Amino acid sequence: MKKSLLALAVLGAFAGAASAQSSVTIYGVVDASVARIDNGGDSVTRLDDGNNGASRIGFKGVEDLGNGLKAEFVLENGFDVSTGDAKKNNGNVGAFSRLAYVGLGGGFGTVRLGRQNSQIKTALIDIDPFGTGGMVNAINYFGGDAGGPIPERVSNQITYTSVNMSGFQGSLGYVFGETAGDTGANRGYGVQLGYANGPLNVQFGYNNQNANAASLTELDTKIAMLGATYDFGALKLHAAYGEKKVDNDNPATADFRVRSALVGVTVPFGASKIRAEYIRNDDKRDGHDNNVAAVSYSYSLSKRTTLYTTYARVSNDDASTLGFGTADTGENASGLAVGVQHNF
Which site in 8, 76, 85, 332 is 20 to 30 Å from 50, CA atoms measured? Predict the structure, then answer.
């Protein structure tokens, strides 16, 4: 009997050690607000989703393989909390349309395969006061209305991320076009380089996405951004400059080129935080310039639950349609949201 108990205790110890070396975590964000949106025509008041951070649910896991090697995966889906419906992410709707990848990491860095963030998003996350979520953020408004928003996530991508070396870290991405007979169609690549040490964070991002050569409605898009933040403690300053170039495959339609600048500030005090930013988009097409200004106040009820209010305004030139969704041509747009966000 004693031997049996001893054997069970030893087996239990081994099982505990094995489970400690691997884990699966469920995480997510639920963000709902009452929003007043005016895109230049009739305004609307609605129950809205994601005006502070996009609602999502995800699963992530890691397994220690020994000798410094580990396996990992992430599966993440976005949803609209006002309806419960799955949310489109860069036009994709599916079980895990935000993120879906598996990878191996070690002393050499990390290699991942699947649907992942673009390198330009990886850089912007650290620079934008609003991250890449909320009513206003650089992913959706940096670059204006030329050729649509900056690609936030990319399917069919293989990436390499280096280890952190005294604050320096970078990543490379390659997107398989997967077009029979034309390896260049739909192919893309990107690079991100960063330095974060103490109060200073500097980020560079570049993405190049080819179009489908069989379609005259597709666009070749190149985006570059250089930005930095400096944290003084009482406040953090944000700044970025970039250019988006969109080559239209249809010879009857002009190409686009937009130069963009961003300045912002984050001011934390106690459980409260104020964030503000201004984005200027200089579009080389006549009448397509636009400016975006936003300010937000948030109050943390706990580490996981936050109350917030955000106001944003978009000023459009005569031919611009940038707004919350799409604004009426040449009309200014505004949005006001009051909501609650819960992280788990």
Answer: 332
